[in-house]
Amino acid sequence: MFDSGVGGLTVLHECLVSLPEEDYVYLGDTEWFPYGTKDTTQLRDRIRSIAELLLGSGAKLLVIACNTATAIGEDVAREVAAEHGVEVVPVVEPQAEIAAAITDNERVGVLATPNTVQSGSYRRALERQGRALEVTEVEAPDLAPFIQQGSPFDGEVMEMARGYCEPLKRAEVDTLILGCTHYPLVAPMLQRILGRDVRLVSGGHAVAAAAQRTLERAGIARVPDGEGDYRFLCTGDSGAFRDIGTRFLQMPLGPVEPVQLPDERPSIEKPR
């Protein structure tokens, strides 16, 4: 399982609860965080390197616990996984399936990073659900970095969230896809702004269910007989990852192993 930082730990948390008997290796690519504004060509190279590292260590399933990585490089991850005979569970499609199933007024919102919105991945995934949905997508370039820093949720972030939610309120969405795995940390804030009748769809539950189905279909799910192991790899500051990650995982992290990926080209931020 991998993510650009600690946000994917919200997905790992749900997998640990739903599939506690499995072993997990989580890679947080904090050296390259945030993915949401990176050059997409370089990001695809980065995703390939991560997939090769994880699958080369013998993983039986690859979970992309990052919405931007799914939107920009799911096909790249699948290419690498196919070479190893391994399936991939992304985060976008499972969320779209749930959102399309639960909306009453057929107005679905997507709150996500610029790269995710501009990729059109959620819009396409929602179109495949067979309902005539009205989709409102909102780019939130500053929300994930704010959450990743572990800053207090003060009035400033509340105003930021209100600004991002305003187009969603105008569109009268009754279902909102949290299109970044960092966003469940501010779900209570978003719920207060949008109102209790708006359903929030996070990636954790959706991905955990999809992972369980995939493992069972392939006949490689472990028999429930206790708790498996979980460990962590990090490309950036492992101490900072552990300190902030505990808040996301809501469980002890333990040691975090620093890893290096092959240097492609220097990372370039896209202009906002």
Compact summary:
This protein has helices at residues 9-18, 40-56, 67-84, 92-102, 114-119, 121-127, 143-148, 155-170, 187-194, 203-218, 238-249; strands at 2-3, 24-28, 61-63, 87-89, 107-112, 134-139, 175-179, 199-201, 230-234, 256-258. The protein is of the alpha/beta class and 272 residues long.
The tally of beta strands, per DSSP, is 10
The CATH architecture designation of the largest domain is 3-Layer(aba) Sandwich
Given as residue ranges, the uncertain stretches (5+ residues, pLDDT < 50) are 264-269
Helix and strand string, N-terminal first? Answer: EHEHEHEHEHHEHHEHEHEHE
Envelope shape: globular
Count of DSSP helices? 11
Distance between the termini: 28 Å
Question: Could you please describe the fold and organization of this structure?
Answer:
The chain is an alpha/beta fold and 272 residues long. It folds into 2 domains: 2-90 and 205-258, Rossmann fold (3-Layer(aba) Sandwich), CATH 3.40.50.1860; 92-203, 3-Layer(aba) Sandwich (Rossmann fold), CATH 3.40.50.1860. It contains 11 helices and 10 strands. The protein has helices at residues 9-18, 40-56, 67-84, 92-102, 114-119, 121-127, 143-148, 155-170, 187-194, 203-218, 238-249, and strands spanning 2-3, 24-28, 61-63, 87-89, 107-112, 134-139, 175-179, 199-201, 230-234, 256-258. The protein has a 4-stranded parallel β-sheet with strand order 1-2-9-10, with helices on one face. Strand 9 (230-234), helix 11 (238-249) and strand 10 form a beta-alpha-beta unit. Helix 1 crosses helix 10 and helix 4 (92-102) packs across helix 10. It is globular, with a radius of gyration of 18 Å. The two termini are 28 Å apart. Residues 264-269 have low confidence and may be disordered.
